[in-house]
Write a structure and sequence with these properties.
The chain is 24% helix and 34% strand. It has 354 residues and is an alpha+beta fold. The protein has two domains: 5-232, 3-Layer(aba) Sandwich (Rossmann fold), CATH 3.40.50.300; 241-352, OB fold (Dihydrolipoamide Acetyltransferase, E2P). It has a six-stranded mixed sheet with strand order 6-7-8-3-9-10, sandwiched between helices. It has a five-stranded antiparallel sheet with strand order 13-12-11-14-20. The chain has a five-stranded antiparallel sheet with strand order 15-19-16-17-18, with no helix packed on it. Strand 1 (5-16) and strand 2 form a beta hairpin. Helix 2 runs parallel beside helix 4. The chain starts with a strand and ends with a strand. Bound molecules: adenosine-5'-triphosphate.
């Protein structure tokens, strides 16, 4: 079921003097969706989020919340709330005081405030005896949950997240990513999240929007973005890839001038003349090791990398690096510098434009 859209962006643009930080963005975010905006540093993510949250006005285009234009409605007049990387908690207050703050400024009576606060603490798996605990005595993960509980206390229609996990160490971050996705399920609220980490975006989001130089270059589910990247930039941004330039040759084959050979390809995109062939490391094979492949290249095994559940191999073909991955249970047995044949099947390759 496609849910109705909660937020509509029509040609949203932000210029700072001569610089276009956000460039004509069209987007619909659906109600209850976990939508992540991802892109490299300086691509305009923060500026876009600040406009959505009402901390900045667009210089062009419109932002509609449930059909109503909200371009110039300030942040505190919008039914939305932002969770910052710094979390912006009151440091000398207790967990309870922090979470109850929005309820207090709305004039709720102490007993009702406390009841709602404890309910939010249960939802966010904060022990009840933390109610009177100073936030300075909470761990990074607990503070994160306090900040989230306080944001939920505003009962916003949309929660915005400005890289809340980027300053947290790897292990805790991995736990919190999943927790945040669980909390999203439990609350059913619309979450709009920005990050420069593809991994984070993949784990949590229903859909991802990839930004580059102020433009939204692709919007799709994590699976769509991973398996059908729109161009070279998105394919490289979405993890390690084997990528080389190719052009259309005779008989619908792909010609690689780099490797002085041609490859078969499943479906040729209409109008394709030249571009890039992308093959994910997990689709690259060692030919002749019980695997039949349609396209082959001979090279030397250069290195092996332990990735935990998988092992990655680097093979060099005519000075070009190829990456292959295998599950740990099926390691490839060869010595470094040994000649190996690598390959892939036509259906496992992706063709992208520049
Ligand atoms: P990061 O991941 O590093 O935070 P970002 O993708 O969030 O980057 P923005 O912070 O939105 O990118 O910046 C986009 C562009 O707009 C950058 O070139 C930045 O220098 C510029 N910019 C952002 N805010 C302002 C401002 N207040 N005045 C002038 N230029 C700005």
């Amino acid at each position: 079921m496609i849910r109705p859209s909660i937020l509509d962006l029509k040609g949203v643009t932000k210029q700072f003097g001569g610089l276009t930080a956000v460039d004509h963005i069209d987007l619909q975010v659906r109600e209850g969706e976990f939508f992540t905006i991802v892109g490299p540093s300086g691509s305009g993510k923060t500026t876009l989020l600040r406009m959505l949250a009402g901390m900045e006005s667009p210089t062009g285009g419109d932002i509609l919340l449930k059909g109503e234009r909200i371009n110039d409605v300030p942040a505190n007049k919008r039914p939305t709330c932002m969770v910052f990387q710094s979390l912006a908690l009151f440091p000398h207050r207790t967990v309870g005081e922090n979470i109850e703050f929005p309820l207090k400024i709305r004039g709720q009576a102490p007993a009702a405030r406390r009841e709602r606060c404890l309910q939010l603490m249960r939802q966010l798996r904060l022990p009840e005896n933390y109610y009177g605990k100073s936030v300075t005595k909470c761990s990074g993960g607990e503070r994160q949950r306090v900040a989230l509980a306080r944001a939920l206390a505003y009962d916003p229609q949309i929660l915005f997240f400005d890289e809340p996990l980027s300053a947290i160490d790897y292990k805790l971050r991995k736990t919190l990513e999943k927790e945040l996705k669980d909390i999203h399920r439990e609350t059913g609220k619309t979450f709009i999240y920005i990050t420069h980490s593809l991994e984070e975006a993949m784990v949590m989001s229903d859909r991802i929007g990839v930004m580059r130089a102020g433009k939204l270059v692709q919007v799709g589910t994590p699976n769509e973005i991973y398996t059908t990247p729109k161009d070279k930039f998105v394919s490289e941004f979405m993890g390690e890839v084997n990528l080389f330039d190719v052009r259309l040759g005779e008989g619908g084959r792909l010609v690689s001038d780099t490797f002085k050979t041609s490859f078969s390809i499943g479906a040729m995109p209409a109008g394709f003349r030249q571009g890039y062939l992308v093959i994910r490391p997990e689709f690259m094979r060692f030919a002749g090791d019980g695997e039949e492949v349609e396209n082959r290249l001979t090279g030397k095994l250069y290195n092996e990398y332990e990735l935990g559940s998988r092992i990655q191999y680097q093979v060099r073909v005519a000075g070009h690096v190829f990456l292959l991955e295998r599950l740990r249970q099926r390691p490839f047995r060869a010595r470094l510098d040994e000649d190996v044949v690598v390959g892939w099947n036509a259906k496992d390759s992706i063709l992208v434009a520049d």
